[in-house]
Structure formats: C-alpha cells, structure tokens
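User: Hi! I'm working on a homework problem where we have to compare a predicted structure to a textbook description. Could you give me the structure for the chain below?
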Amino acid sequence: MGTSSAESVQLDVYQCDRYAAELVFLQQNTEMKQSDQARITRLIERIENYCESPTVARKPPVEARERQSVFGHAHYSDPEIYAQWQAFFQKPAICHHGEQNFQSAVKCAEMVAKQRQAFESRLDKQKEAKERNRRTELTRASKEISQETTTPPSVASKRDDTSYQLNTDIALDKNAGHFSRFGFWLSIVLCGYLFIELIKHMSRSSSTINDNKKRSFKPTYHALTSKLDNKKYIIVHRSMSPLLEELDIDGVALSPFGLFVFVSCPYVGEIEANLESEMWHVTREGGAQYFLNPLNAVKIRASKLAECVGAKSGVKYIVTFNSGCQFYPGKPVSCFEIEQVAFEVMRYTQFIFSYEQLRYFEQRLYSQSHALEASHQIAS
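Assistant: Happy to help. Predicted structure tokens:
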C-alpha cells in the first residue's frame, strides 16, 4: 500500500468551478447558519489545496452532449417516437444549463416528469386507436371473405321451402368454419409473439443480474488502500468484521478525522436521483429498472454503526458508484464515483478522535455479533 499527499492531487476544472460557484453563493447569503460558515471554510481550504493548477476534465463526446439537451433520449429507443418526443417536449425555463440549487433541480425534474407522463398518455391513446382500427379492418375483411364464400349458387326460380332451408344451413356452417380457422391461426401468432417477448425479457434480466454480481467493493477498497496514508487511516472490509457483515456495510475507514462508512451501489447508467423519493430509476442500454434510494439505507446503517462502536459524532457516510454513472437532475452530495472517494475522505483534516479511540472502534468492529444490543459504552 502506497502513500499519497493530498497537496499533490489536483481536481479538474469543472470540479473547481463548482466549488467556486458554491462559495460565492454561500458568501452572498444573508441568513448564514453555523453549518454554512463551516462549509465556506472547507470550500476555501479545498480551492487553495486542490485547485492551484486544475487538471483538464474529461469531456463527453459531442453526440452525447447533443442528446442530453433533450430529456428522455434514453427512454424512447424508437427513432419515430423519439422524434415525436422532441416535437412535444418544451424545456422549462427553470431547467437551465450550468449550476442549479437543489430546489430548482427538483422543480425541473417534476416539470419534466409531468411532460413525459402526458406524452406517454398520448402515446397510449394512439396505440389504442391503431389497435381498434386494425381490429376493425380484420373484421371487415373477414366479413367480405365470408360473404364471398357463402354466396349460394343460382338455382331455379321455383324451389320449395325445404331446399331453401337446407342451403341456408350449409352457408351458416361454412361461415362458422371460416371464423374458427381464423381464430386458430390468430391464437398461434399471438402465442408466438408472447413467447418471443418472454425470452427477450428473461435474457435481459439474466444479463443484468450477472452484471450486478460482478460488481463489488473491491475496486473501492483498492482505491482507498492505494491512495490513503496507512498511518492515519485504517480500512476495514466487511469480510474482516462480523459487525459490518451484520449491518450490511461494505467497508469503513477509521481516521482521526472521522469514521467513514461506505456502501456500494452496483447500478450503472443514467440515474434519476430524487432525494425525497423512496425509489430511484436507472436507465442503461438494454433496459431500465427501479431500485431503493441508497442514501436512506446508508443513513440508517451509519447511525447504527455509530451506536454499536460508541461514536457520538464524526460518522460520515458515502455511497460509491462505478465509473460511467450520470445523475439527473444532479449528483447528490454523498454519492461519488470510485476514483473520487479517496479525495473526498482526504478533504477532512480536523482532528475528532484520538488514536486510542480509533483502536477502541477497531476492536468493536472485530468483535463477534453485538450489533443489535440495546446499550453500548461510549468511548470517552
């Protein structure tokens, strides 16, 4: 495990610009709280240490930036439907490009969601109208065919009632046979279509499950151990601690600057992260799905860990994502990609715990099952 000085690490231009914009916003705020003043101090320290010579940020391809200008490009893979969505969508004025505060971002997401709901409702009505027209055409065609096949042959002008009744019965039998054959072939076609769609859905689900199984906390653990100073930070993997296994926490970093709780999120793609929602939505090539808000879970697990190890304060939680995630309408504060986690941990430099307390916390982590005990002794 190597050591790395925080002073030699420089952030990219976009990250530094975001910190500078947030600093200006907080300094212009007339009703400043104590937490805002602490945030200003951390931002100034971060800009002075990590933004002396910012690196060049990786820019997404031009095609990707053009697609992101219209919301919903990943939801409508059909070019015709996507063109209809572009014509229907009216971008709200609040959804401007650049930095947004949390309230405007949430309002933007709500307005875009309302437009998408109205557009999908209109699509459903169009599909129902097309289906009714198709059924009407099929019924009309079947009636025309049945009329052609059931036309009685020309007979003599004089026939008795018995022969006329016999010909009528024969025509009715032919009509019934035609409709039975049509229903038989139609049922075969529908069954084949449903079978193909079921196979596609199962293959898509199995591929998504396999991808999720391959993801783990190992990349984050390797990034932390290679970039953090092992004299100041103690990294504990969940496989090393029964307590972490019981609380379903992937890893913990113990340091004099705080206890950092890590929980990995295996989803990759375009993530709609709504902090007030219980479910988040992720869209990726091949499908889309909903998953539970990871911030709600990590808050509960971090508070439970603090109670178990006896830490009154200084416990911070971080949700790690693999590279390639795009958050909409904005990335939450406690969510970071794997390569950014070590920088976020090194950002805290104020001493909170002594090394004796850290050894006590480490001993509690390595202890056998005691996570759900009602009372714990607090470390002094």
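For your comparison, note the following. The chain has a mean pLDDT of 77. Residues 99 and 173 are 74 Å apart (CA to CA). Good luck with the assignment!
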